[in-house]
Amino acid sequence: MIFTRKRPTPAPVVVPTQPPSRARAAWSDGLGLIAIRSVQIIAIVLLAAGLIWGLQSLTVVVIPVILALIFAAAFEPVMAWLRPRMPAVLATVLLLLAIVVILGGIVWAMVAAVRSQWEDLYESAQQGVSQVIAWVNTLPFAPSQDQIDEWLAALQGFLTSAQFGSGAVAGVGAVANFVTGFVLMVVVLFFFLKDGPAIWSFLLRPFEGEAYGRMRRIGNKTIDTLGSYVRGTAAVAAVDAIGIGIGLFILQVPLALPLTLMVFLLAFIPIVGATAAGILAALVGLVDGGIWTAVIIVAIVVVVNQLEGNLLQPVLMGRALKLHSLVILFALTIGTVLSGILGAVLAVPIAAVAWGIVQVWDGPDLPARWARRKTRTAR
User: Fold this and answer.
1) What number is the average pLDDT over the span 92-118?
2) How large is the angle between the packed helices 291-307 and 273-289, nearest 10 degrees?
3) SS3 4
4) Which of 43, 73, 250, 262 is deepest in the core (most CB within 10 A)?
């Protein structure tokens, strides 16, 4: 029997730890973590501000490209049906001609209706203004005739001043920018409709692996969201316009057709668009038919908006716009501040696209980690 001597286990070597420096310790506590996060937030805000400033400086290019992308997404099902049946160039030209004919017909109908009824409406407006002035003169705090003459003189002086002239020159510049942007939008829309899938495949070449799959999901989600949003909003706007338009024609309100088309166009601004168009229609009814006509128009607008908001919109817009009303209101406010009415129109679909991208960030049906629902753990 062989006995082996058990070797003693060596004592563990204790390495003296260096105490953290005061600078490192200052950044590792709670206050230091808050400072680091604050610096990161400031950097993100500065980056976002610079991006917004750059986009605002290039609105003549950015806005037409965004509009072209939205229109291309809306008509992508039509192009997907036409591409296998005819050359892509012919399909694109036919679709663009159809869009031009439809939009041109709407504008022509509005202009023709306004021209045919403008004199009657102008006379009614004069009578309405005279009635309002007569009613104001009966109030105890009514302005005197001298004050009214002074206000009219101030208005006349403004219309003949250099400031008004500079505003007119600025208006001419705005018209030139609009024409430039419109032409650019038509050209970009042509290429988006004709070569949209090929353009997106070219933009995806730098990505590989997981990043390629993510960008592919983002592109598909963007097109689906924009297309569903535009088509759903158009359907809702058509219902609003038909409902309110029938009421206007029954009441024989002047400019009923232009007001109906205005309801359709303004309905593309969520929450406030159809309401603003209804208020405009009520004002026209007030000028022509009196207070009860305006009250009936307001009642029609309220009923149509309630039916559309509670019944139709959840069915048509449920998949395209999964945003809370408060988020929509914030998006409308930000878009209006940045780009006026056009910003209000574009803000909600852009917000919907951003939320849709978050929903497919980690997979086809897997949102980003921070946006996933948290499950409660049983205690």
Assistant:
1) 78
2) 160
3) coil
4) 73
